[in-house]
Structures are given as structure tokens and as C-alpha cells.
Prior knowledge:
The chain is mainly α. Helix content is 67%, strand content 0%. The protein has six helices and no strands. α2 runs antiparallel to α3. The longest helix has 26 residues. The protein is extended. The C terminus is likely disordered.
Amino acid sequence: MVAALMHLDMMTWQDKDLGWISRKMNVVKDRLEINRGGKKTQKIERDILVRLDEIIKELENQQKGRPVAAAATAPTAARRRCQASGNRPSGPASESALPSGIAGASLIRRKTSS
């Protein structure tokens, strides 16, 4: 009975879909757990990465053909505030921290020092 169920499940598998990637990743995990991280495991890992790259390129090509949703292009509240004040970021923040002088920062300091 178990063999029949496994066979039915395997018949639904498609070559190189996300299920294939998941199964291959489990094989790599199992091989690494038993210290079999040799050339065969590395080849499986490369196959996984190649297929993931292919899937990403396919999705990017699909997105190029579609119009961008209006909600995705609408400025967020934070972006509107920056645009209104004339401040435009030149790049990503180097660190995630509150700038000095913000009221919230002083509240945090008071609570931690008590």
C-alpha cells in the first residue's frame, strides 16, 4: 500500500520544478549530515543553483512583459515625507539606528538607565 502511494506521488513530480529543488536540497542536507560533502554533493548543489537561476530569469522575463501595478509604484508615506521636505536619500543606510535628537531615542535611554 505504501509503495502504491509513493508511486502515485512520484507520478505527479515534474522535472526541475520547485518540488524537485526541495527534494534535491533534502538530499544535500542528508548527505552533509552523514559527512558526505564531496564532489557528488557539490554537483547536486550546483544543479540546484543553476535551476534556481533559471527560475528567477523566467520570472523576471514574465514581469518585463506585464504592466507594473499602480499600488507598487505609488509612493509610500515615508517616501512622500522625504520628497516633501526635499530630503532624498543617496543610498541605503549604513546602519539601522535612530539618529540622535529624536524624541524616541531619549525615551529608550531613560527606560534602560532606570
